Amino acid sequence: MSETRIRIISALIIAPFVVACFVSYKSLVGLVSSIVLLASAELFFSTLMRYKRIGIVILYTSLVSIFPILYGLWFINRPVELLSSIFIIAMTLTLFTIKDKNKVMEFYGIFLIALVYISMNLSFFIPLYMKHGAAVALLTLTLSWAYDSFAYFFGISFGKHKLPSIYSPNKSYEGLIGGILGTIIYTIIYFMIINRFFDYNLPYWYSLVFGIITGIFDTFGDLFESSIKRAYDLKHMGNFMPGHGGMFDRIDGLLFVAPVIYIFLEFMSK
Fold first, then answer.
1. pLDDT score of 211 more than 80
2. Run of H or E including 59
3. What predicted TM-score, i.e. pTM, was given to this entire model?
4. Distance in angstroms (rounded) separating the CA atoms of residues 146 and 136
């Protein structure tokens, strides 16, 4: 079976479950925490487990995964204090656990990447849902899906001019432009549906901004994760989704897109 077919089948199996979690706020919080759990575990096991420190890896995964739950259910107005507290706890325990001065900075760095890049950035779906509604939160998720799909298709079909990146050399300008254009069209259609059938009144020019934001920041997010994989000589962080790699591989671009979409919407709402 071709890789493209495997990617499609895998996405069709998992996507409906993910979309269903946007039905209620608590299920969304559970979804975010579950994805953080899987993605951070993949990162920790792919990088730090070479030192055979299973205890600290499990501890790190637990601390990173609990952030969306605590933030979404009890500390919605105190995210900075919560983030700082988790960081201090993790670093204090690391000091007592990792005695090798040549390794300790790697543990610090990988945990910080998981806490900020994965857990905090994905948790932007929580205020997106609360302040801008389920439809906008779901749109933010599917923007990344749409861009990845269009960019993959245009890159495979027409990609001749490669983006200047040593971390992901197969990306092309054709894929980038095609992905942005496809995402803009997708967003216009999405706006037409929610503006007509639901209580939304989103300006159609947002579709242009959303498409550009997604194209640029999804690409940067993917390149950031690719740089980590290249540093550790990895093709994928995991195998959770056949044809896509691990959960971390699937959400890498989204982790840059979600915060920027939220910041844009907050700026426009003032």
1. yes
2. helix 54-73
3. 0.92
4. 15
